Amino acid sequence: MSIASAIARRAGRRAISSLPALFGVVVFTFLLMRVLPGDPAIFFASGPNAGQAEIQMIREQMGLDKPIPQQLLLYLRDIGTGNLGRSMTTGQTVMADLVNRLPASLELTFTALLLALSLALPLGILAALKPNSLVDHGVRFLCSLGVCVPTFVSGLLLIYAFYYILGIAPDPTGRIDVFASQPPRLTGFLLIDSALAGDWDAWYSAASQLVLPASTMALFVLAPLARMTRASMLAVLTSDFVRTGEALGLSRKRVVLVYALRNALLPVLTIMGIVFSTMLGANVLVEKVFSWPGVASYALDALLSSDYAPVQGFVLLMATIFVMVNLTIDVLYGLADPRITIE
Amino acid sequence: MKISRRDVLAGSATIATASSLSWSASAQTRAETLRYVTGAAVNTLDPTMPGATREAFGVSVNVYDRLVSFGRKKRGDNWVFDIDNIRGEIAERVVTSADGMTFTFHLRKNAKFHDGTPVTAEDVKWSLDRAVSAKSLAAAQVGTGSWTKPEQFKIIDQHTVEAKVDKPDRLALPNLCTLYAVIFNSALVKKNATAADPWGQEWTKNNTAGSGAYTVENFKAGEQVILRRNDAWVGGVDGKPAPFRRIICQTIPEAATRASLIEKGDADLSIDLQPSDIDTLVQRGRVKAISTPQFNAFTMIAFNTKMAPFDNKKVRQAIAAALPYDSIFKAALFERGAKLYGGTWSGTPTDASFPQPMPYKQDVAKAKALLAEAGYPNGFETFFAFNLGAAAFAEPIAALVKEALAAINIKVDIQKLPDAQISTMVTERKLPFFVETSIAWLPSTDYFFRTFLYGPQRWNYSGWNDSRINEIAEKARFETDKAKYDAACKEMIAIMAEETPIVMLWQPNQDAVMPKNIDGYTYGYHRQVDFRDVKRS
């Protein structure tokens, strides 16, 4: 049996076994939204002179006039056909909204993760090489700072410093300069789309808009990544094969970067998956501060106005992404260490 | 070839000229573009959709025309809309019959929709039919002007439409100025309508079919709308196209970011900054603020007259006498508004306008006496609610109310509730008392009373039901004699001052902040920006 088919089988099995969890998430969110106080029909009938008739009309439009079990069955049927309902706050279908906005969130999250990794790995390694030194304390300080300062504070501070005072950052609103021309939408990722279109002005504009929000996010998740790198590096550095390597007279650099780091990366990989999933949902404040049209701020707006469909759709999306990230990590694990199996 | 120093100099001069030319070209487009930044999002292009936001109203005003429109007047130094001065928009002129019941609209013969087709009487008739028949928010609004059924609108000829009401309603014509009475390109909408959706409401959410000053170039629900000038627009006062070539209407949730953008000159206009920031912004000298008291809005504390002990008039009066109005005005609003308390009249007001300063002022001894008369000499316990979204000004109000009422032995708990929850609890009359800001599109005394002070609808915040008010308000709307109308209004205001179902606090300012070279901003009934008035000097 080839490795590819083994991976496919493993992935398939994992995907099927996660279906009950997704189903549970759907039902749970559905019920949770309905026990929240606040009647969305009343909220949306906010026009002048909206009376009982208007409220009833909206209730029917949202399907809230039916008993809850029936609403749930209808909702499940809709999900089965790929229909996540319609958002009252944006007037669009939830599916269209999510498809529009997910690339924005993903682009931000990926960039932030890359940025965080490129900082966290060297910092973690440095800290592990000289535990309890000044460098170690410095890294610990930076990590604590990053994790303690809420993202909306660091985001606003960055805007204040780099946009307002220094004037070197572009105005912190959205994914691309409003006066710039947008590249044609292919993937929804502006960096990729503009590169494909060969529009380097747009690429530069999109990239420079990304710097501040991505830095804000990266600062926030620096701690788990750097700390995990440090811990697993420390563990690996004291292990037998490193000692053997050093005894054999290999250079310090080679031992650390090739033998130790490769082995220390496994737990970092796990934590990366978790960090990625949480970032996607947790960057709601960053999205708000930087007017980033992502899914998290979308879900928050919907939640505040008791707009059921988008919140349910968002939770389902997040659950699916979480399942997919875990699946990928499992597969990567299996590749890295054939002893790990889920048969 | 030999390159001399002179050639190099000449070459670089050419390059410099070329680059400065392209720079001035882009600066030109920037000068012709207005970038408007706002906190909330445009969620639909059809203003009649349930849940349409104020920002959506603002866009629709500029994209669609109505038959008629409010003119504007100066109030102090600022331009405001004028409900008494109605001008034609798609209609060249409107002729009102002597009995005030028939309106004849003569349409502009050169008015065209964005797709180039002429605006005809059929379009007008279809659009007004839609306003009164389709399931949308329009019917309830135009109903306040006695527009209820399609039979009221009649096509006389290609360019003339007649509209009739059964009784001379004071608000019949003003209602046709509001953004719910928009005129659609009926052929275009019908093409996109379905059997299940005969009025094409699904389609108009994301598409426009208007004849207004701007067309929609790009619409991203929840993010931004880009408008392009319609050069063929004839609905303006002078029949000329709007000043700005392009409008970018962008949602930026963070108020601090909006303020920085305006100050840095990257954005041109915002009307919803934090009141606390505006003075500092203006003092730093790079921007100006046009502050207009929202004379058709009011902030109030509403008592639930259906719930004990607030069903007792004396309790309400006691609380009205216990409140520290001036401190509240300072702490919550930084005095950026017009007071609606401290009126000097008693008994009957001297003027029939509304809202006007009501005769409430702080008098703790009187409050204690009233509470004892009401049967609560030792006070009682209750809770005070406000909307989380309004926390910036409601939180200080709540704290001061709590402190002031503790002085007369009423123990108040404070509850912050999210939007949807507070509107539900208000409608179900489950809150004892709370703070709210509301707005009437048509600032006319009887309309205020009809909308906010009687009836079962949500906007009757206090659930007040006074038989005399019901009777007068229903009659006043059809009163054509000004003296009789004023007398009726004064009586209603007097009853309200006595019964105290709500305590009026103030009319908040609308602070429009912009660079110094932006001019012409007009305060509109919809509290949005009418881009057709704004220009860069």
Describe the fold and architecture.
The complex is a heterodimer of chains A (343) and B (537). Chain A has 343 residues and is an all-alpha fold. Chain A has a single domain, classed as MetI-like fold. Chain A is built from 15 helices and no strands. In chain A, helix 6 runs antiparallel to helix 12 and helix 10 packs across helix 12. The longest helix of chain A has 38 residues. The mean pLDDT of chain A is 85. With 537 residues, chain B is an alpha+beta fold. Chain B has two domains: 246 residues, D-Maltodextrin-Binding Protein, domain 2, CATH 3.40.190; 213 residues, Dipeptide-binding Protein, Domain 3 (Dipeptide-binding Protein, domain 3, Roll). In chain B, 34% of the residues lie in helices and 23% in strands. Chain B has 17 helices and 20 strands. In chain B, strands 11, 12, 13, 14, 15, 16 and 17 form a seven-stranded mixed β-sheet that branches. In chain B, strands 1-10-9-8 form a four-stranded mixed β-sheet. The longest helix of chain B has 27 residues. The radius of gyration of chain B is 26 Å and the shape is globular. At the A-B interface, helix 3, helix 4, helix 8 and helix 14 of A face strand 1, helix 4, strand 10, helix 8 and helix 14 of B.
